[in-house]
Amino acid sequence: MENEQNNLNDDTTPNEDNIEEPPLEAFLFDEEENEKNARKKKQRAFFGKITAFTIAIAMLLTVLGVWVQVFNLPSFSFLKKSNELSQVENIQNYKKAVVTIEGGNSKGTGFNIDSNGRIITNHHVIDGMSSILVVFPDGEFYKAEKKETYEKLDIALLEIDGKDLPHLDIQQERNWKTGGNIFVIGNPLAYSQIVMEGNITASGDLLKISAPIEKGNSGSPVIDNKGKVIGVVYAKTLPKLGSGEESEGLAVPVDKIPELTQE
């Protein structure tokens, strides 16, 4: 047994005299192999960048698609329509009197009806604002003061200290009818001075219009085809899902606003 153990040890113990060291070249990479490895690294980096870029584009398109669906603005067609309408000279003049109402972190629309500065907007636009800023499209801005508020009508009248300001005329007579063509100019979503076209779908204690209305349009003027304001946008309808009904804009007729009918 002892001899067997010794034999086993002899067979498994390496003999340093019998070991041959590999040549130095075995530890060196061939120049051609180095080039192949470098090319592989470049290819991996290139395809990595392509993959990352493709993923980023896919994510961006997904986000934009969700955004469009949320606001129901397919392909942002409202921007194209607004640009087309803005080429009309009369529309360009109307836009000069449509202002942005800002205060705190909120924003809305208003419009000027007097060369010295009298602004109409919604009560809910300025409600809670400690300081009200009125900004005209040319960049001129003014601090506004509340003159009158009609909370039940959701209307507010503001005053600014201006002179020779662009303004819109009010339609003093209720001569608008269902089916009449109208324009709405406002600051919906993240945009400013957007023009939309539509028709009067109902006329009574309030106006219903087919022009698209979005958040930020509150306080926008509803302008008839003679260039006079017939209403002030304050909201829109929200049809039930699956009803097949289209959303409509809601506006306060100008003849319901006491101070305007007294003039």
From TrEMBL:
The chain crosses the membrane at residues 46-68. The keyword tRNA processing does not apply. Residues 1-12 have a biased composition (Polar residues). Gene3D superfamilies: 2.40.10.120. It comes from the Bacteria. This is S1C family serine protease. It comes from Bacillus seohaeanensis. Residues 1-25 are annotated as: Disordered. InterPro entries: Peptidase_S1_PA, Peptidase_S1C. GO terms for molecular function: peptidase activity. PANTHER family: SERINE PROTEASE FAMILY S1C HTRA-RELATED, SERINE PROTEASE HTRA2, MITOCHONDRIAL. Its EC number is 3.4.21.-. Residues 13-25 have a biased composition (Acidic residues). Keywords: Hydrolase, Membrane, Protease, Serine protease, Transmembrane, Transmembrane helix. Pfam families: Trypsin_2 (PF13365). GO terms for biological process: proteolysis.
